[in-house]
Write a structure and sequence with these properties.
The protein is an all-alpha fold. The protein has helices at 2-29, 66-73, 117-125, 127-143, 150-179, 197-218, 221-241, 248-268, 273-295, 298-304, 309-312, 314-337, 343-365, 369-392, 397-408, 421-427; strands at residues 31-32, 40-43, 52-55, 83-84. The strands form two sheets. A two-stranded antiparallel sheet has the order 1-4. A two-stranded antiparallel sheet has the order 2-3.
Amino acid sequence: MERFDRHSIMTLQKTLSIAKSIRQILDKQRVIPQPRRLNETAATLADPKRRHTIPSGFFQRHQSSAAVAAAADASREHDCEPLPASHVPPTPSIAPFSNSPPTTKYKPIPPITLRALPNLYSELSKAKLGGLVALSTMCGYAIAPGAADLTVLLTTTLGTVLCICSANAINQWIEVPYDAQMLRTRNRVLVRRALTPFHVWSFGAVTGLAGVSLLATTVNPLTAFLGAANIVLYTGVYTPMKRTSIVNTWVGALVGAIPPMMGWAACTGALDPGAWLLGGVLFAWQFPHFNSLSWNLRSDYSKAGYRMTSVIDPALNARVSLRYALAMLPLCWAMPAAGVTSWWFAVNSTFVNAAMAMQAWRFWRESNERTARQLFFGSVINLPLVLALMMVHKVGWRDREETSRMAEEGIGLEGVVYVDEDELESEE
């Protein structure tokens, strides 16, 4: 019995020794996935020559965890790369259900409230861009040779704004998976889930119907048709074409040319040659404006799979910018010939358009971030100046003021007889 006990004890000791060896081998093969770290604080650990970055939550723990931080920092550039567990001594700070603060911050999505909705709708509608488009509509109304009516102007502007809200909301509803891949758009309303897709789509549908209905009932059917056509063109043609063909830029330029024509149609009820020239000016202006902008955003467009000229053919992108910057010159010269402005507009606009054409030429000669930025800001200055010069040199606006003054004073033109000087000389 004594021998059996001694033999059993020796066997048990050998078994425990083997088990311990196996456990050590398994411990070396064990891995610990590293968590993502959002807020980080730089700190110097054991090696003074090396600067580590460790989560700020480690400094708030009750037990020192410098070794844990060192192991975590070894995979800073590869957050998901596993590390051997032998490098990380077991400590209570990494135990499950620990009371210590986490290494990442969780920010819940705030609930939708009535107070937050205006800001969310403003982001969804791209309020700044929409304001510029509405301003171009007002300029088209002011340039048109018709009697001005403040009520019609306000309802036209409001209807245009509603159409813009609809187009931008539906555009974001369609592009949300691609917006999430771009640095410029990854914080949009749908990407961060501030609103549901159904909510966004409903907002776009309601604003679109309201805008077109308002234009049809208070302005005229032609303006309402242009507003509806622009929504369809932007959401149904331009948006899907961005991922299939570089022609999307030309379609987008057409979308931008319609709002001033809506203002013209609201004032006159028709699309005269001057309206088409005004739309042509807006159409041509958008190429140097957008192509220079897309040059510095081409990496983002490439990530999302958008087929922009700056991504597919950078040389063509610069050529198109120069081509349409030069086209601004004859388009503005044609405005006096159409009877929209005086010939002084042709003179003054030449200097403004020549400055943008020079910037486009530099961008074509050497396409880089600096020349692209110069052309972009030059185009931002160009359009307001051109539209302002059109309104200043508009034919007949001073004559209408004189006519209204004469009407107020009771001076009529019924008794005025016009005599041809040539006929008068022949009679003599």
